[in-house]
Amino acid sequence: MYWSIHQRFGKIMIVEAILLALTIISVVGLILPTANTQASNELDSLTVAKLQAFTKLAIVYSSGGQAPALVDELNKALNLVQEAKIAESNGNATEATNFENQARSLISDVLARAPLAQLQAQHEAFNRVLFLVASIPVVVVISTATFYLGLRTWTWYEKMKFLEMKIVENDEE
Amino acid sequence: MTYVTLNPPATEHFFATWILGANGLAEQYFPNDNANITLGEQINWTLGVYNAMATLEYVVVRVKLLNSTIASPNETSGNPSPSYSIFEFTRVLLPNETWTFPFVWSILNVTERGNLTIIGKLSINGNMVNGTLAEALLGIKFRFVFELWFYDVNMNQFAFSWTTANTHESAWTQIWFNVEKP
Hints:
The complex is a heterodimer.
Chain A: H1 5-62, H2 68-89, H3 93-172
Helix pairs in contact in A: 1-2, 1-3, 2-3
Chain B: H1 2-6, E1 14-20, E2 36-37, E3 43-52, E4 57-66, E5 87-93, E6 98-113, E7 116-124, E8 127-137, E9 142-152, E10 157-159, E11 161-164, E12 167-170, E13 172-179
Parallel strand pairs in B: 2-13
Antiparallel strand pairs in B: 1-3, 3-6, 4-5, 4-9, 6-7, 7-8, 9-10, 9-13, 11-12
């Protein structure tokens, strides 16, 4: 059986429409989960970043340094991440993204400034060791001098006592 | 002097956590000291955490809503309660820092199935928490458990317990309450 040109054209149009509909469905199907995955991926990457920032600050403190301003900044970022999670669970994606961006900016700043704080902490730790090592000879000199002077004083005291005894003896005679 | 400087006396490292009532003292945890909570009744607590670990610590207070049959955190084994957390508070604590924060909550939805009372919706610090949060027979013996977790930099994960003198230590606290039938 042969189809006319109109029939053939109509068939092609139907096939094209079906293909187009399938394409739209698959694209929409891909986009929606991607949006959700993207939001959770954003939070996941924030989680990794905030832990990295904390690890860097922990190193500063464990080497004897301090960085309270950076800790404060990280705490602000943690609050913003919490706010973002709450906004996301309430379905407020725009607000969540806004909070995430603010948190990301703060964490980036902490990550950028942490190496300098680490360097300062190392420098301070080195200075402390240097002071400790330098203080050893000073302590030895002071201790020796104290011992020597103490000994001399004691000897002088004994001599004086002996002399006093001799004077008393002479007086009695 | 050098020896004393290089060998400081051993100090115990620990976390401490506590709950205070509405007036900031260890009393009046419930309005009129009545632990039978009604729907919508607002309860004001203050949670506290003290970091005596001598290092910077990233801590998470995990809030769990349990009944009397779900296991509590085990202090001997150092294991947390098997229940999931319904809310979390996070903060980086400086050495020797004390952190206090409000925990204001109310029950917004309760359903009943036979003899079981099921808490379905809570408000915590103005945030809504939904789901089958906890269930208890006749609404008796619900409890909030607050577990303190900290980030272990070496293990690269959050931990609930730490080891001091070969014993497991953990920081958690709880308060019991009943839910009155709506």
